[in-house]
Amino acid sequence: MGLLSACQSENTVEQEDSLYFFKPGKQYPYLLTAKDSTGKVFLNKSVVLFIDSTAAPIDASEGKEAAAGEAFYSLALAGHWLTDSMAAPIPAKVTADEHIYTLAFPPLFVSNFMAYTLPLEIDWVMAPTTQKNLLVSGLTDGKMHKGNSHSIRRSLQYVSDENLRIGKILYSKCRKMEALDESTVGKVKITYWVHPEKGFVQAIYRHALGERKYALQE
Length: 218
Description:
Layout: E1 5-6, E2 13-14, E3 27-35, E4 41-52, E5 70-76, E6 80-82, E7 90-91, E8 94-96, E9 100-103, E10 120-123, E11 131-139, E12 150-166, E13 169-183, E14 186-195, E15 199-207, E16 210-216
Parallel strand pairs: 4-5
Antiparallel strand pairs: 1-2, 3-4, 3-16, 5-6, 6-7, 8-9, 9-10, 11-12, 12-13, 13-14, 14-15, 15-16
């Protein structure tokens, strides 16, 4: 999948693969840390995202060595999350165009407030400190709402550029983004960091029911 990537300064855009995220054949391991409403950690799980060009669920045991507690998800080129534990792929969870990329991390739980959030977005031509608003209706994902569908209203802000350390790795000049998603289950605040070469390196989802943190493991 050819991606246009953004460049480093002065909002220039180049046609190259400096933003190598979502390349076929490459795996993207994240550590998922989940906390309950009291702040107690109840789950640490490795989640590996990778691109696959087929439409069939991927069996992580075939041709891949999965560590204990590791969950494999594939991202089809058409833009679907796939896993051997899902009955059907979840569509339209990743997009890319000349300067905007989106990514939705898999919730892993059926009744999960993350299902009531919109995909993370990075727009490389968005100016610092600016904000954009979005309303998406007719959504059916999730098991926590009443009725056939629900809506999500998002307020997204490009906060600043900052360095982020994950373990021993320092990711320089990440774009720090903040999204507030409001729906029938309440408000979910999402803070996430996007590196110009490594892509989405960390995302923290906060809700009254708890917190979910995805951190890239290299």
